[in-house]
Amino acid sequence: MALTRQVISTLRNDGTDALGTRTVAMKVGDASIVSGSLLTVESNHFCVLKSRGAVLNVYDTGQYALETPNAPILGSIAQGFFGGNSPWQYEVIYINRSKLLVRNEGIATSAEMAEMSYVVDYYIHIDSKEEALDLITHMPFAGIQIDTAEIAEYAGPAIEQAINQVIQVTKMEHINERINGVRELVKQHLGDFLSVYGIMLNDLKVLIMPRDERMRELISLQAIGLTPIESVRYYLALRMAEKGLLSAPNAAAGLPFNIGAPATGILPLGDVTGAGGQ
């Protein structure tokens, strides 16, 4: 009877990739992986082979037949002599080398202690076999995989520190003027931090805005040329207009609102009562 080799791959039966666009690394630990099994590595992956905790090899794109460090034991022989389990337990780790998108969100405080929300979007990738080893060496697996959410958790403190370094000494109205400096500082800090884990940092975008929605609207009104007092009046008028109040235009113009016909003149009370000549 012909021997059937087991094929280890990240491709599912429907052709989709198990790593996808969110998984950085994934472990495949299976006692049925024996010498003679075929290891398939896709063009956008690296693969690390471990046995009993020791790294045996790092594979690039291609298909490889696994062998034990000492002597090859085929799958059918292992089934017969070891009850289906190989005496050399293999662990296969696939690393995604595609560019993956990661997002970090948080709160910083301006020089006036106003809360500012920030959003940092950036792309990461694993560039070489050495970096793939750095990843699995320095970043622990909480389960069978490491995803972009875990990368964001690790990177969060480095990003927060870099942003606060600038924002805490900058007034809120001047933060957007320094956004390029904030971006470069975050890129430097984050790049140095991720390099320890073998992760390359690519493009990065930083967006900072007031956390309070009303404050964002007031600043937007000032951005079109209104003074602070005019911005408050227009903001009030907009809220009143949403409620259908007729006095909204008056609030925007800073004028009182009169109910009924406006007064056209003044009539002395004495002329009506006849008491003017007494």
What report would you give on this structure?
With 278 residues, this protein is of the alpha+beta class. Helix content is 33%, strand content 26%. It contains 8 helices and 11 strands. The strands form 3 sheets. Strands 5-4-7-2-10 form a 5-stranded antiparallel sheet. Helix 5 crosses helix 6 (228-242). The longest helix is centred in the middle third of the chain and has 20 residues, at 148-167. The chain is elongated. The termini are far apart.
Give the topology.
Layout (H helix, E strand, L loop, with lengths): L6 E2 L14 E7 L8 E4 L3 E7 L2 E6 L2 E4 L9 H7 L8 E7 L3 E10 L5 E11 L3 H10 L6 E3 H20 L11 H17 L4 E11 L2 H11 L4 H15 L5 H6 L15 H5 L5
Parallel strand pairs: 1-3
Antiparallel strand pairs: 2-7, 2-10, 3-6, 4-5, 4-7, 8-9, 9-11
Helix pairs in contact: 3-4, 5-6
Overview in brief:
The protein is of the alpha+beta class. It is built from eight helices and eleven strands. The strands form three sheets. Strands 5-4-7-2-10 form a five-stranded antiparallel β-sheet.
Question: Top keywords for this entry?
Answer:
single chain; 278 residues; alpha+beta; five-stranded antiparallel β-sheet; three-stranded mixed β-sheet; 8 helices; elongated
Shape: elongated
Distance between the termini: 135 Å
Record field, number of beta strands: 11
The H/E string reads EEEEEEHEEEHEHHEHHHH
Secondary structure category = alpha+beta
Structure annotation, total helices: 8
Tell me the major beta sheet: 5 strands, antiparallel
Q: How much helix, percentage-wise, in residues?
A: 25-40%
Low-confidence stretches: 71-84
Q: What's the gyration radius in Å? A: 34 Å
Calculate the mean pLDDT score and round it. 82
Strand content: 25-35%
| Largest sheet strand order | 5-4-7-2-10
